[in-house]
Design brief:
The chain has one helix and eight strands; from the N terminus they run H-E-E-E-E-E-E-E-E. The longest helix is centred in the first third of the chain and has 8 residues. It is mostly beta strands and 139 residues long. The relative contact order is 0.24. A hairpin with a 5-residue loop joins strand 7 and strand 8. It has a single domain, classed as OB fold (Dihydrolipoamide Acetyltransferase, E2P) (Beta Barrel), CATH 2.40.50.840.
Length: 139
């Protein structure tokens, strides 16, 4: 298995502060439009589907499937170059949105499109965590 990926702290804005605080508690939050019920990704205070400003946080199931991915074999990014090879993927969440993330806890050559995955959190040491996904053996 590749080396452990680095866990750089994310840039936090007022719109994403609650999202990142929840990651420290092991929760993946999504915004839901109170008017049209659209699940919103990335975290923002308005609905891109209907324009409503009435949105609220909802806890995601943490489950999804690999929509597409690539295995990174070369990186110029400090920290990541020591973790080669690693997987960058779009995961389609059970709730619908697709999120850009990493697939961890398996060999890169084991990752497949459609593979069921479950969220895991990697602590940044800054009061939040990065969400990544691992294979979901329970699916």
């Amino acid at each position: 298995m590749s080396s452990t990926l680095p866990t750089p702290a994310p840039a936090i804005s007022p719109e994403t502060e609650e999202f990142w605080a929840a990651t420290a508690r092991g929760k993946l939050l999504l915004r839901r439009c109170d008017d049209c019920q659209t699940i919103i990704w990335y975290p923002r205070p308005f609905c891109p589907a209907c324009g409503s400003l009435k949105t609220s946080w909802t806890e995601a199931s943490g489950r999804g499937s690999v929509y597409t991915f690539t295995v990174v074999h070369r990186s110029g990014i400090p920290g990541y170059r020591d973790a080669l090879p690693y997987v960058v993927a779009y995961v389609e969440l059970a709730e619908g949105p697709r999120v850009l993330t990493n697939i961890v806890d398996c060999e890169p050559d084991q990752v497949r499109v459609g593979m069921p995955v479950r969220v895991v959190f990697h602590d940044t040491g800054e009061g939040n965590a990065l969400f990544r996904f691992r294979p979901d053996e329970d699916a």
